[in-house]
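I have been asked to look over a protein record a colleague put together. What it holds is a sequence and that sequence's fold in token form. Please read both lines and tell me whether the tokens look consistent with the sequence. I do not need a full report, just your reasoning and any doubts. This is what I was given:
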Amino acid sequence: MREHPYLTGAVEERSFLPNRWDIVAIPIVFALFVATAIGLREMAAPIGVLQEQAVTLDPGNLPGYALRTTLRMLAALAASLLFSMVYATAAAKSRRLELVLIPILDVLQSVPVLGYLSFTVTFFISLFPNSVMGPELAAIFAIFTSQAWNMTFSFYQSLRTVPHDLEEASRSFHLSSWQRYWYLEVPFALPGLIWNMMMSMSGGWFFVVASEAITVGDKQITLPGIGSYVAVAIQEKSLASVGWAILTMIVVIGLYDQLMFRPMVAWADKFRFENVAGQIAPESWLLTILQRTRFLQKVSNPLERLFTQFLRLRLAPRASYRLPSVRVHPHVSLAIDIAWYVIIAVGAFYAIQAIVDFVSEELKWSDVGTVIELGIYTMIRVIVLIVVATVVWVPLSVMIGLRPKLAEKVQPIAQFLAAFPANLLFPVAVVVIVQFSLNPDIWLTPLMILGTQWYILFNVVAGASTFPTDFIEAAQNFHVGGWLWWRKVMLPGVFPYYVTGAITASGGAWNASIVSEAVSWGDTKLNAHGLGAYIAEMTEKGDFPRIVLGIAMMSIFVILFNRVLWRPLYALAARRLRLD
């Protein structure tokens, strides 16, 4: 006779003994804690350990290198998540702050990783002069700068496009701003944010070589990790070592896909915005095991209750006790706006003046003209790659996002391809270009697409996977198909996600130009004409005025590109293409 579920649940409530699911889950959790503890202990070792632990090409060291690299990337991902939620919320909730924070975000995403390293390595080392923690923090910060911006843009876009009927429902339930944020806005943003976290993790791999093998002027710091292993392999022309690094990356990406991202995607599916449940939900074996455990559930229950109470805090009076709102006269509001614009203009003027003063002592107007010309070369490459990535990946991403089973199979493959560092293709690019006497200005350009296409892929997949099933069924009932289906149903539905992906793809392409326009294989070096190659060359020389000039010009190009094209499209998505 089958046991009654309520009686079974009552027995399990009184029992703290592990069940068969705990037997599987507890070793996994324990192994993760032990691996983290070992990695953190090595990251806090004395600085002299770096010389004793010089990176070698022995494949036996790769598990330890993989652990160190993964911990750096996870630490940067956690910092990126916190930054995204705070920064994007401030920009989405305040019209005046938005005028400042979004342009600053445009600048931040356009500054290349090498640009941050040039000015932060010394700072972090001075914080921990006798510890490995200083270089570790510099590497984590560099990886953070390759992860944070697309997550911030994704969260900002979601907050700006929350359906109006859900907002009205939250007001009807008299939720405070704090409760509305955690019970409505964050859950609505989670599916897209999680896919962008996957993209950020992969983006961190793309720049991990520059983050772990740091060369700024006369400072050379090499941290044990897969990135520094790849750098040594490229320097010594060891194709076998490159192969071992690729194999290790496949294993590591597969592990954190199964242990972290697959459970997160399956869990976040419950936050889909729709009225029917017509789609097959994504699954995760680890999430299923954790949900069926007894001992781990008992251990985590107090923390879960504490977190729930934290989310339920009103942090504001109830609606019936609120003070009457004070209406600001339009003239007063206009005066405040004018004062705010003046403050922004003065701050921008002083920032520009500081940059000009820093670079004007050693540079001439001819240097500025050279940088503008190189920036135009790089901008043409970025535009071409964005167009190509859009045409190729939008249809494929929609197909993947609408099929959860297909998405489960494609997810780890896409993460690996997005994580594949361009540095590992340098041998092929250099050998082919030299062997056939090809033009580097043309044939180094495909390397940049590795830092471009995946932002569009992951964001459009997120948009398609969260597209309401009832909308799709309505289109089927009205026999809407072909190009009309794309134009009236799917493209408007994923358009806000596409704009987010295109903005971050543009910034990723500019960043990728640093490593793609100046490549080497052993002693053979090839440079394409472009701003990325210019910044890479000046960084290697330690020429800080020209580094600042190159980064400032790259920021100007990105800001103008975003202001002219992407910001109007962002406004259109928020105004006309909301799910309601």
User: Anything to note?
Assistant: Confidence is low (pLDDT under 50) at residues 1-12, 318-325. The radius of gyration is 25 Å. The chain has two domains: 1-29+283-315, 44-269+341-576.
